[in-house]
Specification:
By secondary structure, the chain is an all-alpha fold. The protein has one domain. The chain contains 3 helices and no strands. Helix 1 runs antiparallel to helix 2 and helix 2 packs antiparallel against helix 3. It starts with 11 loop residues before the first helix and ends with a helix.
Length: 113
Amino acid sequence: MPFTQRFVDLTQFQKNVYLAVLCGAVLATGLIIAPVAFHRTLFRQGEKEWLVHAANWSARGGLAALALTMSGVVFLVFDVVISRTASTVAGSVALAFFAALWAVFPLLRRSDG
C-alpha cells in the first residue's frame, strides 16, 4: 500500500492502522514460528518441559496477534473502500470469527470431555 500512488490519499488514522497491522504481522509471524526455533536450538538439551510450555504460550500469543492483525487488515480495507462504519462492523465480525473458531469452539469441546 505505501508504494502505491493512492497512499497519499489515506488519512493519518488509516496510515496508523496500516502501520499497526504491519507490526502485528511481524509479531504474529515471530510468535508462531518461535516454537520451531526453540525446538531446533534446544533439541536433546534436556529442556523438554520448558520447550513445551514456551511453545504453547508462543503459539497462543501468535494466534491472538494473527487474529488481531487479520481483523485490522479487514478494518483497514473496508475503511478505505467503503466507510468507517462498515470497517468497524467488518473488523468486529472478523475478530468474532477468529475468537469463535480458535478459542470458543475448542473450549466448548474441552468442557464436553
